[in-house]
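Entry type: protein chain
Record version: 2
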Amino acid sequence: MKRTTSQSRSILLAVAALLALAAPALQAQAIYRIVGPDGRVRFSDQPPSSTEKATALSPSGRSASTESAVGSLPLELRQVVSKFPVTLYTGDNCEPCNNGRSLLTARGIPFSERTVTTPQDAAALQRFSGQNSLPVLTIGGQRLDGFMSSDWSQYLDAAGYPQSSQLPSGYRNPAPTPLVPPAKPVEAPAETARESAPLPPPGPTPDNPAGIQF
């Protein structure tokens, strides 16, 4: 059954409304990687206490390299990216992830890619999406679990992304980064080497003519 133009327009308007309503919700779902005073690591959507160290893992956050890349986009596309940033969550040996990446690349969608390869990544994904299946796509505040070409395209249309690439020549999306940044190794404090006093040579000396050693 073919959809009429009015039906398609109504669907796009409904999807656009969902994107707008979901944006504040996603901003409130920042995930923190928290290291307690005892060194134990946990993940939470609640800010850490003053005695804990934490790294914010915002699902829709963008790194400095991503911000730099966005700055090179045409104005109209840059405005869409700023309002509805696209983030793709992928894993190893994941054919649907490859298909999703290919769709975004072929359409010229600027996106950030976060990889889920470690138990820490999987725990953070579970906190974020409530499951461990991949891929996951976020468009602004809207999260799409699993790859379905028609759904992804529909949400991208509603967000205002062009249907054909408008990326400048030579544009490259930022390199994929782990969902959970690797912990920095703790450096052990350097110990000052103590020099022991040299032992007196064996044999007779002026103070010990017989060369007796104890």
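Comment: The domain at 5-27+62-178 is CATH 3.40.30.10 (Glutaredoxin).
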